[in-house]
């Protein structure tokens, strides 16, 4: 089996540079998003509260080291760290190249190797907004019966929870929705991304309910998927990221694999390979 038409060797998505407001107001918005006082931030960053106040009001211009120290204390993601640096009149810390760029060949090759290594288990590469960049052959299982309009611009969360996507085949839909929505809610709070917030609102509007009940002893939330033959295939999801990435494309890329949670699922996937 081969990946569907939207998956190609060059099927990568690039980011967009966004204009930043003045550094002080931008930092203040991040501080409020993290629900920190100026004193809290000062303690986290090991600087004086007076200095934090001066930076926020524009009375003091932060150095590059100070911007990065404050960003670390505020847990600002890589793309938004670049925005903070630019707002302070400084060069960004992270480059951004497409995965087609010759300089990204090691990352591109690494992603392809990971995807192929998981076959016949489903595995896909996504960006930070859950847009699907590439899948392996095993992931065809996850798009069987999915409506064409969801595959035209594939987003993993839409495919998973939309009524025209995988939702009718997910036996524990309410439980899986609770897990996915909770995860997206945390990511949205961390990144402050308007795109993530819009996706969250859209996903929350889908039918299916939510169920907080855990399974497998409360250790993980499984994905219970009905196969064509009526067999229930049970998966555990794992996520791989580039922990030391210095490029935004690599830093924001995740590889999500769905591993069999039981022997019956493993046998079914190997038999269908």
From TrEMBL:
PROSITE patterns: HTH_CROC1 (PS50943). Transmembrane segments: none annotated. It comes from the Bacteria. Signal peptide: none annotated. SUPFAM superfamilies: lambda repressor-like DNA-binding domains (SSF47413). Residues 27-81 form the HTH cro/C1-type domain. Gene3D superfamilies: 3.30.450.180, lambda repressor-like DNA-binding domains. Pfam families: HTH_3, MLTR_LBD. InterPro entries: Cro/C1-type_HTH, Lambda_DNA-bd_dom_sf, MLTR_LBD. One of its GO terms (molecular function) is DNA binding. PANTHER family: BLL4672 PROTEIN-RELATED, BLL5781 PROTEIN. This is Transcriptional regulator. The lineage of its organism: Bacteria, Bacillati, Actinomycetota, Actinomycetes, Mycobacteriales.
């Amino acid at each position: 089996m081969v990946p569907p038409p939207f998956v190609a060797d060059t099927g990568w998505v690039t980011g967009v540079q966004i204009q930043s407001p003045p550094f002080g107001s931008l930092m203040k918005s991040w501080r409020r998003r993290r629900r920190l006082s100026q004193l809290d931030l000062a303690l986290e960053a090991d600087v004086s509260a007076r200095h934090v106040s001066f930076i926020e009001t524009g009375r003091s211009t932060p150095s590059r080291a100070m911007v990065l120290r404050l960003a670390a204390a505020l847990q600002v993601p890589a793309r938004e760290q670049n925005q903070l640096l630019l707002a302070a009149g400084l060069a960004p810390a992270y480059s951004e190249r497409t995965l087609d760029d010759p300089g990204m060949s090691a990352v591109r090759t690494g992603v392809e190797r990971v995807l192929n290594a998981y076959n016949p288990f489903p595995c896909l590469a996504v960006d930070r907004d859950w847009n699907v960049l590439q899948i392996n052959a095993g992931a065809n299982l996850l798009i069987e019966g999915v409506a064409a309009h969801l595959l035209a611009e594939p987003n993993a969360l839409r495919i998973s929870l939309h009524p025209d996507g995988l939702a009718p085949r997910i036996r524990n839909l309410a439980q899986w929705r609770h897990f996915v929505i909770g995860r997206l809610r945390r990511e949205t709070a961390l990144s402050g991304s308007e795109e993530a917030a819009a996706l969250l609102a859209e996903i929350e509007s889908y039918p299916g309910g939510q169920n907080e009940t855990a399974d497998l002893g409360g250790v993980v939330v499984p994905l219970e998927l009905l196969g064509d033959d009526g067999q229930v295939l049970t998966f555990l999801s794992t996520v791989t990221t580039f922990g030391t990435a210095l490029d935004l494309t690599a830093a924001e890329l995740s590889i999500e694999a769905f591993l069999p949670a039981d022997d019956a699922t493993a046998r079914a996937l190997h038999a269908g390979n």
